[in-house]
Amino acid sequence: MAQTGPRTPNGKRKASRNAWKHGILSIGIVINEAEDPRDWQEHVDGTFESLKPEGHLEHLLAERIAIDLWKMRRVDFYQAVVTARHMGGARADLQLARAYEQGTVAEGIFPDVSDAELLPHRAVRVLPPIDELEKIMRYHSHLHRQYIQTLHELEAMQARRRGENTPLARLDITGAPGG
Length: 179
Known about the structure:
Blueprint: H1 9-15, H2 18-22, H3 24-29, H4 37-51, H5 55-88, H6 90-102, H7 115-123, H8 130-161
Helix pairs in contact: 4-5, 5-8
């Protein structure tokens, strides 16, 4: 007996994402050893459920949005890791400074530092080093702009599909604070 495929709108919507579950993008988006494919699939399902795309082009835009949001999440994780590493180096830096002060570096003697002494040195490291911070901000800004543009295009396409008027041009203004 031949299979006819899904019949309900919900079933058709889920089946339309089979390429994500089994295709090339399902392999290329998730980083092995760092991300869980089930989290990615849950993310895609949630994105599609929220955006409710119809037709091929809307699906492509929804996929692009899912990818951009996933990558922004990855940038946030990277920032957390870099910041933790930066803060973690405060103890060794302070011990090295104390050893220089005491003249014990040559002997390999590094005085211990109390948590109370360490706290202000860690506190000023809650942001990553400037080169890392610039890279994070640049990448996040690029992804955010791409996400916003794609979302606006999807929304305009959906509005046109519903017969609503859409402006021919939209203006998004984004800039640095105080810039």
